[in-house]
Amino acid sequence: MRSMVRGVVAALVLSIAGSAVAEVTSGPQVGDTVGAFEVTKVAGNPDDGVADGRKLCYRCKMGARPVVMLFARTADDRLAKLLKKLDEELEEHKDDKLSGFVNMIGADEDSLKKAATEFATKHGIKRIAFVVPEDAKNGPGDLKIAPDADLTVVCYKEGTVKANHAFAKGALSDEKIDAVVKASCNLVE
Q1: Based on the number of CB atoms within 10 Å of its own CB, is 109 exposed (0-12), middle (13-18) or buried (19 or more)?
Q2: I need a surface site. Which of 3, 13, 24, 110 has the fewest CB within 10 A?
Q3: pTM to 2 decimals?
Q4: In what order do the strands lie in the sheet with 66-72?
Q5: Taking each helix axis from N to C terminus, what angle separates 77-92 and 174-186, rounded to the nearest 10 degrees?
Q6: For residue 17, what pLDDT is reported?
Q7: Domains and CATH numbers, the chain
Q8: What percent of the residues of the chain are helix, what percent strand, and what percent coil, each to the nearest 5?
Q9: From the centroid of its chain, how far is CA 179?
């Protein structure tokens, strides 16, 4: 009986610990303002009027539009699945000017630029721009992107955060992808 109780307790502790690891606080939170920051556009969204290689404040370019802004450390199949769904939503809501851009962060700038370009091409992402911020390691300091966040998604409109989702490496499930897509749709309702 004791070994069974110990087993249940151990499983519970591991479950709670796993949940704690998966929950990350990262980026500006609901109600916060998204400030300006410089990036280099490297790929994606050819219709945004910004040439690949150009340095600019992409957040400034978006103005008051509804925007899904992502900070990604890993360009993997889970990110591709999320971005393909977001790409569809951006197309569906183009009259509402719903926009999106991915900030690739975590490594040196040249590696990030190469990875972003290859990723956008490989996965056929059309309406989402890929950028590398000047602070390529963790993104702009005032946005407080957590070092343990593999993906941070900030949905904002008129510069004010309406939703925030942050995920540790490996924590982006199908259910969480759906929640992010729903939050992006809520920006235009």
Answers
A1: middle
A2: 3
A3: 0.87
A4: 55-56, 39-44, 129-133, 99-104, 66-72, 151-157, 160-167
A5: 30
A6: 38
A7: 25-186 (3.40.30.10)
A8: 40, 25, 35
A9: 13
Helices (H), 54-145: 58-62, 77-92, 109-123
C-alpha distances out from residue 12 to 8, 16, 17, 153, Å: 6, 6, 8, 29
Alpha helices of the chain — where are they, by DSSP H? Answer: 2-22, 58-62, 77-92, 109-123, 174-186
How distant, in Å, are the alpha carbons of 6, 42, 101, 133, 183 from that of 111? 47, 11, 18, 13, 30
Spatial distance between the Cα atoms of 8 and 180, rounded to a whole number of angstroms: 33
Average model confidence (pLDDT) across the chain: 89
- As a whole number of angstroms, the distance between CA 79 and CA 72 comes to 8
Q: Say what angle helices 109-123 and 77-92 make with each other, to 10 degrees.
A: 60
Q: For 14, which DSSP code?
A: H
| pLDDT score of 9 more than 70 | no
Amino acid of residue 20: A
How far is C-alpha 81 from the geometric centre of its chain's CA atoms? 12
Backbone angles phi, psi at 131, to 5 degrees: -130, 165
Give tens-digit pLDDT for 28-49: 999 999 999 999 999 999 999 9
Q: What is the rounded distance in angstroms from the CA atom of residue 29 to the CA atom of residue 154?
A: 8
